[in-house]
Design brief:
This protein is mainly β. 0% of the residues lie in helices and 47% in strands. It starts with a strand and ends with a strand.
Length: 66
């Protein structure tokens, strides 16, 4: 899993990239009082639960924290 987080003004953008050919799950810990909004990807994500994010093979997910 490749994970990158960027900050712009008072918001954050997290990019998760599953570079494997198999489904994976990851959990995130957040240290900010922000609400997560899925803005790209997430075939397997119905509701954002940052403690259990499922990514399909070769999937990219982008989460906006506002």
């Amino acid at each position: 899993i490749l994970l990158k987080t960027m900050k712009a003004d008072d918001n954050y953008l997290t990019i998760l990239l599953n570079m494997k050919n198999e489904k994976v799950s990851v959990g995130l810990n957040k240290n900010v009082n922000k609400v997560a909004k899925l803005i790209f990807g997430g075939k397997l994500i119905k509701n954002i639960d940052i403690k259990n994010i499922h990514l399909a093979p070769q999937e990219t997910v982008v989460i906006l924290w506002q």
